[in-house]
Structure formats: C-alpha cells, structure tokens
Design brief:
The protein is of the alpha/beta class and 342 residues long. Helix 1 packs across helix 10, helix 8 runs parallel beside helix 9 and helix 9 runs parallel beside helix 10.
C-alpha cells in the first residue's frame, strides 16, 4: 500500500473517438501501475463527480448551462477541440471531482494524485485545447471555500502554457509590472527591473503576490496557445530545450516562486508532452529527464513541507506506451521520494 492515494475511475475515459488525445491513457496507467506492483487496488479510491456548485466556483453560470443543455454554439464546440456530448461533460465533472478528492487527500497525506485532470486550458466562460472544465481551479476554490487552505501554488510542466490557469487566477498578479529574470544560479534568482529575453529561454515574473494563488508555467514559447495570459511566473522555453536546461529553469522558477509566496498546497500539472517524441511538443526531454523533473518538484515541496496534488494534463507521444510510462514514472518518483517518510 502506498503512503498516498491515486484517485481514479474507469469513467475518466473521454468519449472523443479517434483523436490525438489518447483517451485510453488513464486506463492504461491504472493497469500498468497494478501490473508492475507499483500500486495495489486499495491505493485507487474512486471519486464522486463535482457538483454544479463546485463548478460554479470557477465557471460562469451561462457556460455551465450550455454544457448541461448541449447548447454550445458551433464556434464554442470547435474551440474545445473535442466533440461535445453529455458523456463528455460527465467525464469532466468526474475529473473535477477527482481533483477535489486528490487535493483533500494531499492535505492529509502530504501527497495525492488524480490519475487524470490537469485541464489547464479551460477558461471560466469557455473550453479550449481539449479542456472543458478546469479541474485544478475547481479543486483549489472548493478547498478555499471549505476553509482547508487559503493559498495555493500551481506548477504547470505541460509543454503548453496554462492559459486558463493564468486567466482564472489573474488577481494574483493583476496590475503588477512585468519583471525579467536572468540565467543566474537559483540562489541569486530574483526579479529585476525590466523584461529580459534570454537565448535559452525567457522568464517573465509578475512580482505582486497579493493574490491567493501563485501560478508558475514552464512551457515551450513557440507553441499553443498563441496568446499567453501572464502567469505569476512564465518560463518561455526555446524550441529543442533538453533535460539539463529544463531542470535548471524549473529549479530557478520554483526557487523564485517560493521566495515570493508561501502556499499551503502545491498543484503540480505533470504533463508528459515535453517528451522529445511528442506529436504536439517541440522540446527534447527524455523519459529519464521527465522523471528527474518529477523528483525535483517533489523534493522541493517535501523540503518545505508543502502538500502536493498531482494531475496529468497532456501527453501525445507517437507511441502511447511512452506517454503511459512517463505518467507512471511520476508515481514511481513519488513512491521513491515519499515512501521513505511514510
């Protein structure tokens, strides 16, 4: 038995037909973790769907009405990039419930996974980029409403910028002047005046920490979305960045963010698509490098006694089994890191 929970349901499967998003990956992850004995059946509690009240903590009443009644416009359906159906909406409600459950478990056990979720392109009033409901934002707002946390941090390591996350939590940096950060060692990594573009990648920081959620996004600059709303810290990576440079930038962003902000929960969006064989990515990380990424996030959070909720977001490798391996390795990294301290 693991010292943390892996929230999962077979009903996470998205009914989207033939699609670049591998809807079967959640079931394959569950099966692989059991087959390799990384986890056993008791480690996988089943979630309940989020309620309308939960979803409305983030999404607008009009958008929720359209989702529930199937009255999205053709343009709105096209923007989601997945075919609308009532079954699809139910799957997203369930994923949001899974992130609520994982967040609550993380506060008790120091760490928890939603073997799904991470739908970071969803906005309050519309869906985008395969994302219909922003499960991470719903989980944060529900836990804040329940008085379980006041401050949270999102660390988004999907290859695509978390534009929905940035927009939803924009009050965390509204009105702040952009600041640039140079390629200094993490001990000296702090905001400086004026934006700066760097050869290996650029980091822009919004230094106001008056909000209740601090957002970090580490992503490929020349990739979706075309318009990137400002996160608290955006790490704009150049095409082709590999393991070592990626880990350097992630370390710097975490160090800077945690100097500016003290969260009671860290929501880690562990996308598999920075992988060098990903169909929708242009970075060059290896499977081993992605596991080191996970280890770094877990090590930093554990050292500061910050509970971590993990969601999976994207992953579009040419071989679906590579995506499954990357996501399973995140659980392996957590087991290696937190199993010693159970």
């Amino acid at each position: 038995m693991l010292p943390f929970k892996l929230v999962y349901s077979d009903d996470y499967y998205l009914p989207i037909g033939a699609h670049v998003f591998p809807a079967e990956k959640y079931r394959r992850i569950h099966q692989r973790l059991l087959k390799t004995r990384v986890a056993d059946p008791s480690d996988f509690p089943e979630p309940s769907p989020a309620s309308d009240e939960d979803i409305l903590l983030v999404h607008t009443p009009e958008y929720v009405r359209k989702l529930k009644t199937g009255t999205l416009s053709p343009r709105e359906e096209l923007q989601m990039e997945v075919p609308y159906s009532p079954e699809l909406v139910r799957a997203f409600y369930l994923a949001a419930g899974g992130s609520i459950s994982a967040g609550q478990s993380a506060l008790k056990d120091k760490l928890a996974f939603n073997i799904g979720g991470g739908f970071h392109h969803a906005f309050p009033d519309h869906g985008e980029g395969f994302c219909v409901i922003h499960d991470v934002a719903v989980a944060i707002r529900r836990m804040q409403k329940d008085g379980k946390i006041r401050h949270a941090m999102t660390v988004d390591c999907d290859v695509h910028q978390g534009n929905g996350t940035a927009a939803i939590f924009s009050s965390a940096h509204a009105g702040a002047a952009p600041a640039g950060m140079g390629g200094l060692p993490s001990a000296f990594f702090a905001p400086s005046s004026g934006a700066q573009s760097l050869k290996s990648g650029g980091i822009k920081s919004e230094s106001d920490t008056g909000g209740d959620v601090f957002t970090i996004s580490l992503h490929q600059q020349n990739n979706y979305p075309a318009i990137k709303p400002p996160s608290s810290i955006d790490v704009n990576l150049a095409d082709g960045v590999g393991d070592d440079d990626y880990l350097h930038w992630l370390d710097n962003a975490l160090s800077s963010g945690l100097r500016q902000f003290t969260p009671e929960l860290l929501c880690y969006v562990a996308g598999a698509d920075p992988y060098r064989e990903d169909q929708l990515g242009g970075l060059s990380l290896t499977i081993e490098g992605l596991k080191k990424r996970d280890e770094l996030v877990f090590r930093v959070a554990r050292a500061r006694h910050i509970p971590v909720m993990v969601t999976y977001a994207g992953g579009y490798a040419h071989q679906v089994e590579d995506t499954v391996t990357i996501h399973c390795n995140t659980v392996v990294a957590a087991k290696e890191m937190f199993g010693k301290f159970a």
